[in-house]
Amino acid sequence: MNLRLILFMLCLVVTTFAKAEITLPKIFSNEMVLQRESDVLLYGWADPNEEFTIYTSWNDETVAVKTGNDAKWEITVKTSEAGGPFQIIFKGKSNEITLKDILIGEVWLCSGQSNMEWSANSKIANRDFEVENANYPNIRLFTVAKRTAEYPQEDVAGTWVSCSPETMQDFSAVAYFFARKVQKELNIPIGLIDNAWGASSAEVWTPESVFKAHPELVEAHKKVEPNQWVTVEKSTLFNGMTAPLTKFKIAGVLWYQGEANTANAENYQELFTSMITSWRTEWNNDFPFYFAQIAPFKYDQEFAGGVVRNQQRRTLVLKNTGMAMTSDICLIEDIHPLNKQDVGLRLANIALKDHYGLLKNKEVYGPLYESFEVDGNQLKVNFSHSEGLHNKGKKITLFEVSNAAGEWFSAKAKLKNQQVIVSSKEVKNPTGVRYAFKSTDIGTLFNAVGLPASTFVSE
Q1: 235-260 confidence digits (pLDDT tens)
Q2: What GO terms are given for molecular function (predicted)?
Q3: Which DSSP string corresponds to 235-256?
Q4: How many CB atoms lie under 10 A from the CB of residue 162?
């Protein structure tokens, strides 16, 4: 290396340190929302061993901070009850940063594939009306820019904006409709982080640690074929888009995904459960995780959609999870149902009841399979969330029963005493029952509040 190059590099290093300033991750910006009544972590970078102060206006307190040798700093501050606007002022030797118009309320991370990413600009039902009336300044939106990474990153690209007709139309429609309902009921600010990428499989959102612990998921992932919209390389979206957010305090997660995992559908419950658990570990928070069940669609495989829906149903054994059923708002020929309003509303109702303790007398789930009883050549099928169980149409269809060899046959079904009684002339001693199991099966069984029964296969 010649002397001239050495001198240039030394000058570059000196200039870099001379200009080093307090720097914040992009998730901290004007108009952001912080989680209410929580220990919230503020963090970033500055000069190594630099001392500076942080002022938070909601409690009128100033705290001293010092970076480490790695030029990183972090400090925990307590947030107040919901409200705002507030300010945070970072004051150091080289610069001062003032974040303005900060609200304190509830923050939800909204992730998955295209049905979560789908915005009003992508076409939704009643689009013009919804956009024109999307003036909710106390709902704040942060869209995570699409990024992949081989290893977990520390920052994302994006900025917070207030919800308006201009900003809403580029944002996740499901997330917006969720927030609109929750904000109305709680009357507090809502922050939404849109962290979705169309056509993505669950593997790309799952940390590498999961695959090290579960090599069978690595094998199952090989069935997921590449597509033209997003990488299928496992963990890459988690590394680039989710890992940088794991220090940011959130209330919970909304998830709408599963269509991209029809190729390895049989493993979805294990994968999904492991992913949810790993996210909670990364955040060190057993937050609520609510997801939309995928809708019926004409996949290449006759039963792949039904397998995923059943695997999603089985994921409900994981604590603090909830599932919104969507089989009644599907378009068999279109994987993107236009009715995002009801998906967001159903997720919101689950959150309002299960997490916020409201809507105590309101049913927020569709009928879920519970058990069956053998009665001769009949099976009596029991459901939870089944008050007012009824069928839309003259006949109850889409039920099947299995024999001892595991073969499935169409079954006749009737309602009696809130049970569905099923039987088939071809099966004298039925051993199992399933419902709406084909990819395109649109169920007709509903409860009193009009929510559809989930696809299921008896265990």
Answers
A1: 999 999 999 999 999 999 999 999 99
A2: sialate O-acetylesterase activity
A3: THHIIIIIGGGTTS--SEEEEE
A4: 18
